Amino acid sequence: KLTGLALQPVITPELVQGQVHLKCTYNQPSSKMPLQYVVVWSHLSIPGKKEQIQEDTTLESFSYIEMNGVNLRLGDTVFCTVTAFTRDSPEQQSLPEESQGFYAGIKFLPESLQIAEDGKEHVLTILSTVPITCPGHNDSCKITLQLSTKDLASQLLGPPDITLSACQVDLLQAPCSGSSCAAALVTVTAVTDFAVDGNRVSRITAEPVGWRDLLWRAYTPKDVKVTVQDLPTGNCYSFTDPHIITFDGWRYDNYKVGTFLLCRSVLRAFEVHVRQWDCGGHQSATACNCGVAAQ
């Protein structure tokens, strides 16, 4: 056996003659013996089970495999396993070393979200771990993803509990860096629905649109699970002649005639005005609500 070679294979994506390839790179030990390498490519056919798709014997410190959309598709988790042996004595082999799994496709970061009905925006990063190709001279080098939301119990509770800042995002071709070859951002906000409907689970789906390339046409990325924490809604009141109860339960009366600012947000462009008229006549100085305006 050949020992202590530390081949440490790593998979990186690369465009080769306009086509998406994965490259397995490994260390070439400074050995006096001439070495050859057997590189076995495999992917997860079902969770926990690997299926071999290609085997190369090479003198080089790398090996390529094409993502052709047939035996290697977007959405696959890919591995390369490297074994070294001496050319003079093929029976002298190293122990096989396997790379970490490389997920080829669209990734969402984070993969799931837990948010609350508090109006805060949460950033969701959408990235492609493989390069974006340019299928023709007149086509721009991008993938357009159609985003949508759905509630897992929508038949019972109505529309989804979340809203997105965009319905479509473009992943534009860019040099691959780390695990990203193209990225876009979208913000997710929980809908403040004034309903006591408990914690609900919604999903964000993404679907490539208008793409003629076989690799992308048959691909649907995994959904993003979003759990929305239900928060109690504040209430305030103005009623009869008018008695007013504020959000925090403070009570007072306002018997005057005129137009008044009932409430205003200090965080956003939102306010409510109320108009009161005389409804007590000569017997009592009393006013009642006659109109309301909300921005």
From TrEMBL:
GO terms for cellular component: cell surface; extracellular region. One of its GO terms (molecular function) is signaling receptor binding. Pfam families: Ig_VWDE. Keywords: Disulfide bond, Signal. It comes from the Eukaryota. Residues 234-295 form the VWFD domain. InterPro entries: Dev_Signal_Modulators, Ig_VWDE, VWF_type-D. This is VWDE protein. The lineage of its organism: Eukaryota, Metazoa, Chordata, Craniata, Vertebrata.
